[in-house]
Fold this protein.
Amino acid sequence: MATKVLAGITVEVTDEGYLTDASKWTPEIAQDIASEEGLTLTQKHMDVLNYIREKALKGETLTIRAIGKSGIVDIKGFYELFPGAPLKLASKIAGISKPTSCV
Amino acid sequence: MQKEEFPLKKVCLICAKGTIEDVYATLVMANGAVMEGIETKVFFTFFGLDAITKKQIKKIHTATVGNPALRMPGGLPFPTLLGMLPGVEAVVSAMMKRQMEKLDIPAIPEFLEMITAGGGEIYACKLAMEMFKLKKEDLVDEVKAVLTVGDFYNMCGGQGTQIIFT
């Protein structure tokens, strides 16, 4: 575990940079993590992040397939918004823990 | 001495068999790589072609005969003689697919869509196509091209690349 200053707040993060306490998340923190990853967040990004947080805080396992069926973004769009490893990247920016799903 | 690490950058998967478990092994590994941002190329050959052939894609089954790992729900061994009965293979296959659906593992056509939506590429083997008298039009739209073995190998170069035969 390590601490990190994001958007002026000191938060605890894992070695890989995921927030340990999702309740400490703010949209400003999201913006800060995103810039570290070379992304500028748009409203579309925020819509996806809010959806992901809502699901994760309910304890549901997130999958790319479910996000593709959310009605917010399709799978191709999700990869475009969060390039590379979208589920991990979006989870990190959304302040939730590292995804554990294989699909 | 510091050990040098080379991250995995590209995977080339080969699927040569056409049962549910063989096809899904390939698709799950391929989709998993795409999800990690790893460049992914999948080569379907021999009976594996069924998984990308329009006519067969919805008829992929598991073997209920000659499959010692197959068990009844509850864990008892699945009798080979039962597996021979007409319809049993279809029922067992449908059960497997239902179990997978519960884990959010999609059916094969949707899985191929997911892989290509994420930038993965699907290829078919030219030699096997000729053997089974298949044309490019017989294959699903996700197939990017029909390749010779040499063409496929030429795509699989570079440091951090692995070829996986499932």
